[in-house]
Amino acid sequence: MSLNSKQNVRCPKCGQMTEVTVWNSITVGDSADLKQDLLRGKLNMFHCPACQHTALMPSPMLYHDEEKRLMISFSPCNDALLKNQLYDNIRKTSKESGELSNLEGYNLRFVTDYNELLEKILIFDNNMNDKTIEMIKLMILSQDIEKSVDRVCRFGKCENGTLEFMIYDMKENQTYTSQVPAETYNTVHQSLKESGVKPYSFDWEMVDGAYATRLLNGFNN
Ligand SMILES: [Zn+2]
């Protein structure tokens, strides 16, 4: 069930008070329209009617797609230390509540970045797994290893047997695209499966570049 709450927010730019509807939980099955708003970047956004200032509300949100057996816990956060604390908290809370036993066969993801949240939804909507995608992203970024520290790679789309990735270079302030044949996805996916990587979760997981690097170094799940 999708749940929201109303919050009175003071605009950080001009001080105007505005009521914002904040969604704390989205269940795709009964809220297709909310999912569309989310994908358009409209959900949980503060918008000031007086000065037009727009910002993401710092509220956590749970995204649940029962059909795809996907649950994403989104906690907006820019701080690496806090990110790890939030991640530890959700793992501890889930363990204590016993809710993980109801989520067998699920992919459980913890993200702190709005774009990462949208990327994950897009990957699973294309019937792919983000673990494989993160490996491919690592392969793409390693083609120009010196520049990779300044680059962010995101899955864009899958069309006509081709996967398209967007690479944003923060130093150059440029966006590049990179195309990978879908066949490569299948090959990487198969080899991950053979090395023991499960296409579902036993606990909440952070599946990102660091995760893919650990996989490359021989660590499984
Ligand atoms: Zn304002």
In short, what is this structure?
This protein is α+β, with helices and mostly antiparallel strands and 221 residues long.
Task: Give a written overview of the molecule.
It is a single chain. The chain has 221 residues and is of the alpha+beta class. The chain folds into two domains: 1-24 and 40-57, no CATH class; 60-216, no CATH class. 32% of the residues lie in helices and 29% in strands. Helix 4 (130-141) packs across helix 5. The longest helix is centred in the middle third of the chain and has 18 residues, at 80-97. The chain is globular, with a radius of gyration of 18 Å. Bound molecules: zinc ion (ZN). Zinc ion binds at residues 11, 13-14, 16, 48, 50-51, 53.
Keywords:
single chain; 221 residues; alpha+beta; 2 domains; five-stranded mixed sheet; three-stranded antiparallel sheet; 6 helices; 32% helix; 29% strand; globular; binds zinc ion
Please render the helix and strand layout as text.
Elements: E1 3-10, E2 17-27, H1 32-39, E3 45-47, E4 54-56, E5 61-65, E6 70-74, H2 80-97, E7 107-111, H3 114-125, H4 130-141, E8 151-159, E9 162-169, E10 174-181, H5 182-194, H6 209-216
Parallel strand pairs: 2-5, 6-7
Antiparallel strand pairs: 1-2, 3-4, 5-6, 8-9, 9-10
Helix pairs in contact: 4-5, 4-6
Bound molecules: zinc ion (ZN).
The site of zinc ion has 8 residues, from loops.
Poorly predicted runs are: none
Number of strands: 10
Number of helices: 6
From the N-terminal CA to the C-terminal CA, the straight-line distance is 30 Å
Report strand %: 25-35%
Main β-sheet, spatial strand arrangement: 1-2-5-6-7
Please tell me the total number of domains.
2
| Helix content, binned percent | 25-40%
Shape: globular
Largest sheet: 5 strands, mixed
Mean pLDDT value: 95
Estimated structural class: alpha+beta
Radius of gyration: 18 Å
Order of helices and strands: EEHEEEEHEHHEEEHH
What ligands are attached or bound here? Answer: zinc ion
